[in-house]
Amino acid sequence: MKSLTFALILLLLPSVxxxxxxxxxxxxxxxxxxxxxIAAGKTTAIYYAASxxxxxxxxxxxxxxxxxxxxxxxIAEELGNALVYPTALCSGRRLDKEDWTxxxxxxx
Length: 108
Prior knowledge:
Layout: H1 2-21, H2 31-39, E1 44-46, E2 49-52, H3 63-79, E3 82-84, E4 88-91, H4 97-106
Parallel strand pairs: 1-3, 2-4
């Protein structure tokens, strides 16, 4: 049984490795795969931001992150010449001008 499991792993491993290199998500790639993708014609970078916020007990806190991640990946695949940067997280809290002024002056 152990030898059968080992044989299956050896058979499936190349497909897993090859599948990872076809990703448009920079976070899935090594730096050499990113370099090769750019050399092969990936000329567009998709940079997106998402927030974590509560919306009641029925929704995950990271729903905006999940949606942005999914949408950016699909857009890159449709474009054909794009790579997707990792998600830039931002606050879901609305900031007024007074909040920014306070934050900046407080850290001087």
